[in-house]
Each structure stands twice: as C-alpha cells, then as structure tokens.
Amino acid sequence: MAWPWPLSLITRTTAAPVRQRSFDAATGDRRGKGMGMFGPINGEVGAGLELTRRRARYLEANNPWCTNGVSVWCSHLTGSGIRPTAKTNSIDERQIVSAEFETWADDPANFGGMANFWGLQEQVARHLVRDGEALAAIEMSLNGFGIRLIAPDQLDQAKTANLGDGRLIVQGVEFDARGNRVAYWIFPDAPHSEFTQFAVSERYAATDILHIFKPMSAGQVRGVSWLAPVVLTTHELDQLSDALLVGAKTSAMLAGFLTDINNTSTETVFDFDDEGAVSLEPGTIQALPAGVDIKFSAPDAAKDAPAFVRLNLQAIAAGMGLPEHLLSGDLTNANYSSIRAGLLPFRQRVEQVQYHTLVPQFLLPIWRRWLAFQITSGRMDISADLDVEWIMPRHLQVDPSKDVDAVTKMLDAGLMSRTQAVAELGWSIDDLDAEIAQDREREARLGLNFNQSEGAPNAA
What we know:
The structure is a single chain. This protein is of the alpha+beta class. The protein is built from 11 helices and 12 strands. It has helices at 41-62, 64-78, 91-105, 117-130, 231-251, 305-320, 324-328, 336-376, 400-412, 418-424, 429-446; strands at 83-86, 134-141, 144-150, 161-164, 167-170, 173-175, 181-186, 202-205, 209-212, 256-260, 292-296, 388-391. Strands 4-5-6-7-8 form a 5-stranded antiparallel beta sheet, with no helix packed on it. Strands 3-2-9 form a 3-stranded antiparallel beta sheet. Strands 1-12 form a two-stranded antiparallel ribbon. The N and C termini lie far apart (119 Å).
C-alpha cells in the first residue's frame, strides 16, 4: 500500500527532555526535606496572625531583650513627636497653622484623655512593632475633632466573605471591585475584655479608620508582628538562660555523697536528719570510719555559653532590625567607628518606616482631616490644599562635633540648604530664626556680648 504523502514530509518525533530542578532551594533531597515553605501572603498571615501576636506580646512583656528592642524602635520612630510644618511661602501663615496644630495636638481630650498627639504616636509605633499593625478611628463631633486608638484585636479577623460583583471582605477588611479599601469590620469592644460578651463586628467606613502596618508583600491585608522572625529563637534563648542559671547555682552548691565500701552501716557513726542527709557545718573536721568514703559533686559549667548566648543575641538583633548594642546594651568592644557603622543602616530603616508607613498611613490623613475641620468650622481661613512637611525627631549623634563639621562643609559647598539642615535637627527653621532674633535683640538691649565664633553676626 502506497503512502498517501511523501516520505520526506514524515518527521521523527522525540520525547520532551526531562526537566530537572537545578536550584538548591527547590531540591527534595535530604537537605531540603522537611524545610518549611511560605505560601500566599494573606493565607499565611491569616493562619498565624493571632498566635504570633500573642507570643510577641508575651515576649515583649517578659523577655528583657524583646522589651528593650521594642522600646528602642518606638523611641527612634517617634521620639518626642513627629511635628508638621505647613509648606507655604507666607511665614505668618506657617506660624499660625503650626500654633493651631500644636494647640490641638497638646490637648489630651482629643485622644481619649490619656495622651496627647505626640504620646499617641508612641502608642501607634508600639502596636506597629509588637502587634504588626495599629488601628485608629477618626471621630468628629460638635465639640471638635479627635483620634481614638483601637486595639488590633478588635478588627474581625474571621470576617471573610465574597460579596459578589468583585467585592470582598478579607480578614475584616472590605474591598470594592477595584481592590480599594472601603470599610473595616470592627468589634465594639476588645474581644478579650472581661466585661465584653460576644458581639457582632460592625462596619466602619475606611475614611474614618486608619490602618497602619508595614506590608511584606503586594496585596497584603493585615500586618504581622516585627518579632515574628525571633519568637522561637528568643524562646529557646530563654530556656538556655534558665538552664545556665540553674547549672551555675548547682555548681555553687557543695554536695557530698557517702559510700559504704565495706558494706557496713554508717547510721551509727553519723547523725542523719529526717531526710537521710548529713549536715556539714563551717569549720567542721569530721573523721570518717574505716570503709567509708565521701565524694563531692562538681558539675561542669558550660564553657562556651557566653559566646553562644551572644551569637543568639546577634541573631535576635538581626531579626528585629537593630544593631546588637542597642538590643543588648553591651558596649564592651564598641568604638566610634563600629557604633556609627551600626547606626547608619539602622537609621535608614527608621526613615523608611517613618516616610513610607507612618506618614502616608497615619500622619498625612490626620493632617488632611484636621485641616478640613479647621476650615469648615471657620477657625482658619486657609487653602484646603495646604501641603505639609513632617519634621522627624533628631537622631542623637555619636560625636556631635564631627557631624556639625560635616554639615557646615556641606552648607559652604551648596550641597545642603539651611532649611534642610535645621529640619534634620528636628526643628522648624521659622521657630529657630525667631528665637535667634529674640535672643540677639535681648542681648543687644542688655549690653550682653557672648563669645561667638568668627564670622557670627554679633561677634565682637
């Protein structure tokens, strides 16, 4: 039978080559067997959020390293307070706006009566580090405008539903069809409150809720405690420390054991107490009968324990994003260069959180609502589009003279403006210039002339 097509058109087919995983991270041999894996971010967060947060709270309350680490982060993130400066060319308008905001921010009645706006910033930072997220409600009333902090537990984690038409509720956060946050489902009181019975979460518009967290991945809905990478390590270090302490206490004890070599009773020779032990008093010289031997315990202390403990502290510091000396407080081998080398990358991390998390998610929305309230209530006649610059707290310098010398050279070379230099110190240039002018006017009026550096305006 003839082929219906030419033989030249017949091609030989071969099996596809077998694909082999060449990445060591994807191997399934003995090194990769049993290794944990991380799935989609929201599924992982939803499964481990509550337990991780509870363990982090326990460590922050009981472990000295975690207590110090959380406090260090809070102090560097907010310090004495992140203050706004209105971006306007009018000095008078800028000073008026700053004074009005300070008056509102200093009143504890606007923040639940327990703290002012600067104290609220510290509480938000603590929730952010320890719990992974912070919640605050914007409350408007006839008496004014206020902010109320909400415990992260009140955000209904179990509230997940498909509302249709592309609308979703994921772990208590409601999204529209375009993926924008439109509402939060919040319990009326904290679920762990002893006075609270079971209650159904209530819907609050996203415009009235501030949800602050540092996302780990795109599309993340809820925040995770910053202590998550070090929870197990810190727990193991706690156990190690307890074991070393018990071992040291045991080593300090003098324990002796009598051995009856000749198999004769020693009860008639020694005065045993009710528990069958022989007491040893200071300065006692005891003669042992024939056939009786005594041996003292000498537990071996862990010789490498200090180095091992420090290695774990370094791991905890790295997991929390802190220089080791800020976590442990150990400055034994520290010098100017090593401290500066550790502080510079840490300060970069601090600024990232300040400008990428705190400002857009917390500070800027409050500024806009406060500005709108001031305008609509008739308290201020300014533009609703008035922009703001947030002045971060000043970082303490390791060697202030060297830093001032570097800033002075940058100012002389035109690489930095004086406004920028003053802002980095945590001051408003308007306030600083006004204070300098007042000081010099008072000094001239009183005939004072202090020793000024060469080139100063009022140098002798």
